[in-house]
Amino acid sequence: MTYGVRWAHSDEASSVADLLSAFHREFDAPTPEHAVLTDRVTQLLRQDTTWALVAGKPACALALVTVRTNVWHPGGVALLDELYVAPDRRGQGIGSAMMTELARRVRAEGIGLLEVNVDEPDVDAIRFYERHCFLASEPGSSDRAFYLWQEFCAGRMRP
């Protein structure tokens, strides 16, 4: 099944923002007002370095990806910033269909690495990404990979 998986354009920013907001609300995470988020998504989708993959009409699933240059990967590195499937549509293969299309595009664009950040307690997400060939350690090593960050947004910086 294809599940109506397609690449969204800037004119679909409002529905992309709807899905991003739904994802954040599901986990009680802060999200900007819809108009602010829609404007951000519109601007980002006008660039070659941000991609939005959606499924369904109306859209019920989203994969948001950003691409950056990298010294070790001449084609760049893609980061799967968000992958969300509406709760009532989960378990139907939509996420897997989206990952298949994302992998196809990453390869076609010559990108050398696809990354995703997952919280350690989210064992279902970890299992999902491992089924799609993501690794938590270098092959032959038992050392786990970690993602560390420091925010510089006003009001959110830690000392």
How would you explain this protein's 3D organization?
- A hairpin with a 5-residue loop joins β2 and β3.
- The protein contains four helices and five strands, in the order βααβββαβα.
- It is 31% helix and 19% strand.
- α1 (13-26) packs across α2.
- It is of the alpha+beta class.
- The termini are far apart.
- The protein is globular, with a radius of gyration of 16 Å.
Brief summary of the model shown:
By secondary structure, this protein is α+β, with helices and mostly antiparallel strands. Helix content is 31%, strand content 19%.
Using brief descriptors, characterize the structure shown.
single chain, 159 residues, alpha+beta, Aminopeptidase, 5-stranded mixed beta sheet, globular, Bact_Acetyltransf, transferase, Acetyltransferase (GNAT) family protein, acyltransferase activity, transferring groups other than amino-acyl groups
Write the layout of secondary structure elements.
Elements: E1 6-8, H1 13-26, H2 34-45, E2 50-55, E3 61-68, E4 77-85, H3 94-108, E5 113-116, H4 123-131
Parallel strand pairs: 4-5
Antiparallel strand pairs: 1-2, 2-3, 3-4
Helix pairs in contact: 1-2
GO molecular function, one term: acyltransferase activity, transferring groups other than amino-acyl groups
Pfam family, one: Acetyltransf_1
Domain N-acetyltransferase: 3-159
CATH class: Alpha Beta
Given as residue ranges, the uncertain stretches (5+ residues, pLDDT < 50) are none
Q: What would the average pLDDT be, to the nearest integer?
A: 93
Strand order of the largest sheet: 1-2-3-4-5
What is the CATH architecture descriptor?
3-Layer(aba) Sandwich
- State the major sheet: 5 strands, mixed
InterPro entries: Acyl_CoA_acyltransferase, Bact_Acetyltransf, GNAT_dom
GO molecular function, one term: acyltransferase activity, transferring groups other than amino-acyl groups
Keywords: Acyltransferase, Transferase
Protein name: Acetyltransferase (GNAT) family protein
